[in-house]
Amino acid sequence: MKSCRSSRRCCVHIAPLAALCAAALLASACGSVVPDRFYTLAGPARGVPRAAPAGFYIELMPVDVPQQVARSQWVVTTGPGQVDLLEHERWSAPLSDEVGRALSDELSRALGAIDVYRTPHPATAPVFRIHVNVQRFESAPGAYVGVEATWSVRALPDGVPVTCHSTIEEPVTAGYDALVAGHRRALQRLSDDIVGVVRKLVPHRSAPAPSAAAPASASAAAPRGRAGTGIAPTAVAPDSALRCPAPA
Where are the domains of the chain? Predict the structure, then answer.
């Protein structure tokens, strides 16, 4: 093997070899890159019948989610007080938008009502404004998903809010697709709770307003929780006995 007689000649011979090695390493690294996978909570199940068109609208306001999970990457529970950030498992939109879109789809399908948030609509039609504050959005792979939310329904323009709190858990099998399916089921159950209140408020809203001497709440029973599904009232609606879904 010939030795280099000068450092300059050695550099000339070594440089192409170094470039080839770098290219080989780069090709090897590129072959092992893990692709990002994107998931969505939106989209009602196919074949699920839609309710007949309603004579009212709903207005689902932007949904709040905990800051710990307000990111595109998934945050999963791995143990007591421990979570992992999954860099390559991502939501297709900010989580608050994903949850809001899923709830809007479910509410519109079940009620037959159009969600008119930021959309012009006839002033004569009743509108029910819905606020949802998600306080827990937990994903435990192979175990369960958990959703807790405080939510309210109010008839515009001057209805008194009916406010409730829902606690929902769904068991899930292993796999990321199972987590998405579990969260969809949990949000569907949350939607069902909200739908129950809206349906009861519709005829109440159209009824004559109670007189000042005998408000409807005067004879209303005390609020009742729903232990079986974790639904409990958090506020009193003085013009109605509709505080939360009735016990199952």
Answer: 67-205+222-233
Sheet holding 37-39, edge to edge: 37-39, 82-91, 73-79
Give the list of residues 6+ apart from residue 187 with CB closer than 8 angstroms, or none.
41, 99, 102, 103, 106, 147
Asked if residues 150 and 133 have their Cβ atoms less than 8 Å apart, the reply is yes
Burial class (CB in 10 A: 0-12, 13-18, 19+), 208: exposed
CA dist., res. 65 & res. 173, Å (int): 24
| Residues 91/98, Cβ–Cβ less than 8 Å | yes
Predicted TM-score (pTM) of the model is 0.73
Backbone φ and ψ for 64, nearest 5 degrees, come out as -95, 140
Of 87-91, 190-194, 195-199, 207-211, which gets the smallest average pLDDT? 207-211
Give CATH for domain 67-205+222-233: 3.40.50.10610
What are the φ/ψ torsions at residue 83 (nearest 5 degrees)?
-135, 160
Contact between residue 4 and residue 10 where contact means Cβ atoms under 8 Å apart: yes
